[in-house]
Amino acid sequence: MRLFNFLSKQPELKEHNNPDDYTLVHDILWASPNEFDLTMDIYTPATGKDAYPVVIMFHGGGWLMNNKSIMDQSAAYFATNSDYVICNVNYRLLSDNNNSTTMDAIVNDAFGAVLWVKEHITAYRGDPARVAVTGDSAGGHLAAMIVNSGRQLSTEPFSAESLNFTPSYIPESQSLEEIRLRDGLAVQAAILSYPFEFYQAALDGFEKKFNPIWWLRGAIGRGFFGDEFNVEDDPAIYMALSALKTIPNVTKRQLPPQLLTVGSNDPIVSPASVRTYMKALEAAGQSAQYWEYHDKSHAFLDSGSNRLLRTGFALDAPPALNVMIRFLDDIFYP
Q: Do 60 and 89 touch, CB atoms closer than 8 A?
């Protein structure tokens, strides 16, 4: 999650964003769940390879705010300085559809985006067999859900009796059961930047009616799954959407390599909470790396500058993005 972005624009440096180094297709419609259009931007490097690994990017904003534009500069930096096809994705927010979107629907969107990319990305010279997911804050949570729970699929609606997900996009040529059996949501790497922990957010009162985070979006606080559920009486449905609570043991399923990043001065997602997630991965036998960004706050990957959090893309983001690119290069370009 992040606080409201008091953003201002900054002049872009060519080494951060050089449109000559990539082609960009804006606002590709990839799904319309409940008639709500979802789009993504796709950046393809201009370095002449027949195919590139793919990075699917999910923005942050507490599942309530922002859209893919908050990641525009990070996506352009990746496209300028690396050989990856970048997919910068919009998903539904809790406050969308008259403040009625449920948290499982947002996860459905994240799952659907991966399936859409795998089916269509060859048209943009992306390799569907080499895919990484990344996200920051709430987007980091969504990336973790793809990695941890991508086999929890069902056409049955999400409920206390069916703690599974129905992606917002399913290829017409495939059944959801076929996708589940072949592990169709599997990815080859993940980068979670200051990932917000869903279950803890509920315990900490995120759903309270007068939570100011909702007000900043112009909405009244409510339950993640509607008003009939709450974290005290229905913990199982909340844990099903918790990255920390859904890490599989390596004896059951090996997760892809992961990089966890966080600012040492993050007031929203503490380094301690990210280290807790790292330790949980290690305890389950999973592979992960941890990088703490010295003297940085939350949202250091955001476009523009944020006076409230004292972050600015030009100063803060490039060193972190370079760490991310090196991590991916070790996997996809060893």
A: no
**Model confidence at 6, in pLDDT bands (50, 70, 90)?**
very low
Q: Sign of the C-alpha dihedral, residues 238, 240, 243, 248?
A: positive
**DSSP symbols for 188-217:** SEEEEES---HHHHHHTTTT-TT-HHHHHT
For residue 283, what is the enclosing H or E element? helix 271-283
Report how far residue 163's alpha carbon sits from residue 160's, in angstroms, rounded to the nearest whole number. Answer: 6
The answer to whether 82 and 329 have CB atoms below 8 angstroms apart is yes
Kindly list the distances between the CA atom of residue 18 and the CA atoms of 37, 43, 79, 205, 318, in Å, as whole numbers in the listed order: 29, 12, 8, 43, 14
pLDDT at 309: 77
E-only strand ranges, 198-329? 258-263, 288-293, 305-306, 311-312
| pLDDT of 308 strictly over 80 | no
Q: For residue range 248-273, what is the model confidence (pLDDT) as tens digits?
A: 999 999 999 999 999 999 999 999 99
Number of residues that this document lists for the chain: 334
User: Span 277-300, mean pLDDT?
Assistant: 97
* 294: exposed, middle or buried (Cβ count in 10 Å: 0-12, 13-18, 19+): exposed
Domain ranges (residues) in the chain: 7-200+238-332
Q: What is the DSSP letter of 302?
A: -
Q: What is the DSSP letter of 39?
A: E
- Per-residue pLDDT tens digits for 200-251: 999 999 999 989 889 888 999 999 999 889 999 999 999 999 999 999 999 9
The CATH homologous superfamily to which domain 7-200+238-332 belongs is Alpha/Beta hydrolase fold, catalytic domain (3.40.50.1820)
Distance CA 325, CA 256 (A): 16
Q: Please, what is the end-to-end C-alpha distance for the chain in angstroms?
A: 34
Pairing of strands 305-306, 288-293: unpaired
